[in-house]
Design goal:
With about 575 residues, the protein is α/β, with parallel strands linked by helices. The chain has 24 helices and 15 strands. The relative contact order is 0.17.
Length: about 575
């Protein structure tokens, strides 16, 4: 394997685990009341209680906390050899390899004769029993590196009774004590389902989830952020900064930058805070204001016109990938399409091409949504029909919303020009930033956080707890003070309509419009529209002064009471 000087030096960085996870021989655990509470409403809780009769009770027992609690606390360490399996699931996120490294290191301390087995290619690798032994040596070249390539990943699911049974036989056949699933909301939903199934059939294999996703949408009062978010947003912030400086130099383009984030706009808001673009659309705000596509285009057009009056024919506009599902008429359209595609998948696949499929769909769609669909550019119509992922989600990364906005804006501005209300030339460029950030080498924050999550997952495995997520809290404090714990997966669960049926799912967390991070953003952005107040974030710094290398995301600092000025 060719190793660059950067890879070599970066692999030498030793992440720091919180003090409660440093001496694992002395590790103790206890139940603590879940503060703040995450409880579902009574109706949802009762439905979840019926769906998860064995593991739902855990939500009443609260968190599992790790630390040194004196004589009365129970020591979870086991004398026998602990065998832990690990699988990466869903989209890559910087830090995945450090979670595995943390697990491997922790198992060596917790259970010197213990073993770690990795499954290749995501959950499908469990079903295919495609396993490999992981050791300090095999993990060594992947330390502090981006990507999920040590094991590979996929969005495959373990959901049907046959797959669950197959999974049990593979896990038991390998004599695993625990399986750690590193994934996003869908993968952690899978973890909860598998944990319940295994308890129900009398299996001793336990299941632990780890919160991963660049989208940052699994954060809640107990899970402060997901690993990968910080590194990905810093890559995007650097690129957006470079684009901003380019546009300020050439003064001839509006750059439309679509940023990944399948539902929530956390990435866009964080990148906006770090770069101060002309406009940053926030999908949750669009939904709250019930803004139609026309309203959004008009809002942007007004800014373009005002800036043209000041002689400015350039700017930077951030568009969250998920916005399309938050625009009311598009949401209705996608929801109907999802249902029709789920019900008539085979028939649609048998039709000869897009024209026939589209005619068929128009017959099935309601009048309003059919009208919305036909009003969209053909490319966008095609993109809306592309295959759903195994969890029933539309492939938003392939829907070019930035181009849709540009196309609508061009015709809107042409009309304005014809009527003498716009005196300018609308030059534009479009970009999509997503895959560029998902495999970046993790920042110091993500390297430390992911490694600590791995150690926490191993600690949970040693307690024989099942159906918990490894969580590290107090992230805005000094690393030594971070708190490791386990949160019952079911405490984060809700019921949602997916593919036409009601399903239990880990709740996605959207941008909280009343929260301190959005409020700060909303105040700051007022001056960005006209002042060209671009902020140049620069590249991720891995070496150098702590003030540059060890910052946490600004939205995380704001969310947990930090002052943006002292951290930034
Ligand atoms: P996860 O939720 O699995 O972490 O993935 C999120 C994401 O990066 C989204 O931002 C994006 O829409 C999607 O993955 C793209 O998925 P794919 O890798 O299948 O193209």
């Amino acid at each position: 394997m060719a190793i660059s000087p950067f890879q070599k030096t970066r692999a030498e960085y030793q992440p720091q685990a919180p003090s409660c996870l440093q001496d694992l021989q002395q590790l103790q655990s206890r139940f603590a009341s879940m503060q703040p509470q995450l409880s579902a409403d009574a109706k949802t809780a009762s439905a979840l209680g019926e769906l998860f009769p064995h593991t739902f009770k855990q939500t009443e027992r609260g968190l599992i906390e790790f630390g040194a609690f004196g004589d009365s606390a129970k020591n979870p360490g086991e004398a026998r050899a602990l065998h832990v399996g690990v699988v990466l699931s869903g989209g890559p996120a910087p830090g995945g390899h450090n979670v595995i490294w943390g697990i491997v290191d922790a198992i060596r301390s917790l259970s010197p004769r213990g073993r770690v087995t990795g499954f290749r290619g995501g959950p499908a690798g469990i079903l295919a029993n495609d396993a490999m032994q992981l050791s300090a040596d095999s993990v060594q070249p992947y330390r502090n590196s981006g990507g999920f390539d040590l094991l590979g990943t996929s969005r495959s699911k373990i959901d049907t009774p046959e797959k669950l049974a197959k999974c049990r036989s593979v896990l038991e056949g390998l004599e695993l004590d625990a399986l750690v699933i590193i994934g996003g909301d869908d993968s952690n939903t899978n973890a909860a389902v598998l944990a319940e199934y295994l308890v129900g059939v009398g299996s001793a294999v336990t299941v632990i989830g780890v919160p991963k996703t660049i989208d940052g949408d699994m954060q809640n009062a107990l899970v402060e952020t997901t690993f990968g978010f910080d590194s990905a947003v810093r890559v995007y912030a650097e690129l957006v900064s470079n684009i901003s400086r380019d546009t300020l130099s050439g003064r001839k383009y509006y750059h439309f930058v679509r940023l990944m984030g399948r539902a929530a706009s956390h990435i866009t808001m964080e990148v906006a805070l770090q770069t101060q673009p002309t406009i940053a659309l926030i999908a949750e705000e669009v939904a709250a204001k019930k803004q139609t596509l026309y309203a959004i285009v008009t809002q942007i057009a007004e800014v373009v016109k005002e800036r043209a009056d000041q002689g400015k024919h350039y700017g930077v506009i951030l568009v969250p990938e998920g916005i399309i599902e938050f625009i009311p008429e598009m949401r209705a359209l996608i929801s109907e399409l999802n249902q029709i595609i789920a019900e008539h998948h085979e028939y649609l696949a048998s039709l000869s091409g897009f024209t026939e499929q589209s005619e068929y769909l128009h017959r099935k769609l309601s009048r309003d949504t059919s009208y919305t669909f036909s009003g969209l550019p053909i490319d966008i119509q095609r993109q809306l029909l592309m295959d759903r992922d195994p969890h029933g989600n539309v492939a938003l990364s392939r829907i070019e919303t930035e181009k849709l906005l540009i196309e609508l804006l061009v015709s809107h501005l042409n009309e304005e020009k014809a009527e003498g209300r716009y005196r300018g030339n609308f030059g534009y460029q479009h970009h999509f930033l997503g895959y560029e950030g998902r495999c970046a080498a993790p920042t110091n924050f993500d390297a430390n956080y992911a490694y600590s999550l791995g150690r926490t997952a191993a600690a949970l495995a040693s307690t024989r707890a099942t159906g918990y997520m490894a969580v590290v809290r107090n992230l805005s404090n000094n690393k030594a003070e971070w708190q490791a714990c386990g949160v019952p997966l079911l405490a984060m669960m809700t019921l949602e309509q997916r593919g036409g049926t009601t399903k239990p799912v880990i709740k996605k967390t959207l941008v909280d419009l009343d929260g301190p991070a959005f409020q700060y953003f909303a105040e700051q952005r007022k001056s960005w529209v006209h002042a060209d107040d671009f902020r140049y974030a620069g590249p991720i710094q891995y070496f150098g002064p702590l003030a540059l290398t060890d910052r946490i995301p600004l939205s995380l600092a704001l969310q947990h009471g930090g002052s943006p000025l002292t951290n930034w």
